[in-house]
Amino acid sequence: KAIELNPEDADVYNNRGDAYRNLKEYEEAIGDYNKAIELNPEHANAYNNRGLAYMNLEEYGTAIRDYNKAIELNSKFATAYYNRGIAFSYLKGYEKAISDYNKAIELNPESDAAYNNRGLAYKNLKEYEKAISDYNRAIELNPESDAAYNNRGIAYEDLKEYEKAISDFNRAMELNPEDADAYNNRGEAYRNLKEYEKAISDFNRAMELNSDDATAYENLSELYIITGNYKSALETITEALSLSLSIEIEDRAVCFYLECIAKKMLQMDISDCEKEFNEIHNREFETTWSFAAIESWLEDLSNDQKAFVIEKTELLKEHKR
Quick check: 120 and 138 in contact, CB under 8 A? Predict the structure, then answer.
């Protein structure tokens, strides 16, 4: 109706684009942002918003071009710097992302989201202390940020400060009891402390909350392997693989890796899973999977079993980020 009344009003198209984007109708949103820009080529918000729609479509390079234009039109546009930082992070350009978050924070020092995301970029560069400092600031600015607590917990976990990590995951769960990631992350911390029953409980809860996330299945299957419950490990990984095309290639690689190990320990035929694993190994992907638990467990195996697991582990490690 507003467009009927104001067919030359760029803001009306921009606003309808936002409505389409909120409905996840990204192509329609882009069409409206295009019209807004056609009517007003100086409309920085429309460029920024079109960038968001392109990001939703995982077209990060195109999104960055739109953020560039938004910033060119408005050099004080903190949100555009922040969004471009996110796009650079998706492309693993963490240094560029940090530079953009720095500018976003300079323009808007109260942005807890900018501190949180800069922390994520530092974490990906393995600068964990800087990451924790940013998460601390994000929490100061927004004590209700479950994401910042969860992310700080992950950084503590990376530093092997598992008790601190668990404390942060607990707080994240208090703020958001439906946060599957927090349960999965706390499960990893409990596993590293060898509190296996607590870890199993957390991985199961993560799977209940988000049955489409392969990570908790992988973690639970690995835990069953290192505690000798190979049948349950195989059942869990079979369930994960039933997620089919909804799981990423790196998760499928880990699943077939764990399936091969469980079947080897059960003295089952491994030809099918080995074929799948080898096919994925020959493709390009990166994994953040930690091999510490499996490598520690290796010491208890026979020479034949150990050689098999080491061979598969070394193949998967070739893809380690």
Answer: no
List the domain boundaries for the chain.
211-321
What percent of the chain stands above pLDDT 70? 97
Which amino acid appears at position 262 of this protein? A
Q: Are 46 and 36 contacting, i.e. CB atoms less than 8 angstroms apart?
A: yes
- 243: tokens are 């997620």
Q: Which residue type sits at 176?
A: N
pTM of the model: 0.90
pLDDT exceeds 60 at position 245: no
For residues 237 and 258, what is the distance between their CA atoms, to the nearest angstrom? 7
Of residues 268, 308, 291, 280, the one with CA closest to residue 222: 291
pLDDT at 4: 62
Structure tokens at 254: 């880990």
* pLDDT tens digits, one per residue of 222-241: 999 999 999 999 999 999 98
Task: Give dist(CA 53, CA 78) in Å, integer.
Answer: 18
State the average pLDDT over residues 40-58. 98
Question: How many helices and strands in the chain, by DSSP H and E?
Answer: 19, 0
The first and second tokens of residue 34, run together, are: 């295009």
For 201-226, what is each residue's pLDDT tens digit? Answer: 999 999 999 988 899 999 999 999 99
| DSSP characters over 74-104 | -TT-HHHHHHHHHHHHHTT-HHHHHHHHHHH
Class of domain 211-321: mainly alpha
pLDDT at 242: 86
DSSP calls for 191-227: HHTT-HHHHHHHHHHHHHH-TT-HHHHHHHHHHHHHT
Q: How far is CA 231 from the centre of its chain?
A: 29
Give the count of beta carbons closer than 10 Å to the beta carbon of residue 245. 6
